[in-house]
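REQUEST ID: PR-0412
SUBMITTED BY: lab tech R.K.
PRIORITY: routine
TASK: structure prediction, single protein chain
INPUT:
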Amino acid sequence: MPQYVQVQVAVDDHATAAELARSAVSARLAACAQIVGPITSTYRWKGRVETAEEFLLLMKTTRERSGELAEHLRQAHPYETPEIICLPVEGGLDAYLHWIDEETRPGPEGDARGDGG
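STATUS: complete
OUTPUT:
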């Protein structure tokens, strides 16, 4: 099983995307969060086909931290049923993968805030 994953989540505005990105990286739950968009999403919701403008966040983390990241996103997300999808990373530059490890380790106090380095 791959040790690294990319978690993706869509939101309805750039400000929300930026806040989710910043909070996930600040909490050391993701090493990186990229915002893509705007994008157009078409989906079925409560029996109707809807189309909306959204922004897509792509976050890199370890499989070990992915559950905490998903829960963090679920709690902070404005949607009733947010898209939170975890995709395996099958390979990558060793130095980049090592960087993900380093940036997603809990801070020295043993918590996930990362305010100690």
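NOTES: Residues 109-117 have pLDDT under 50 and may be disordered.
REVIEWED BY: pending
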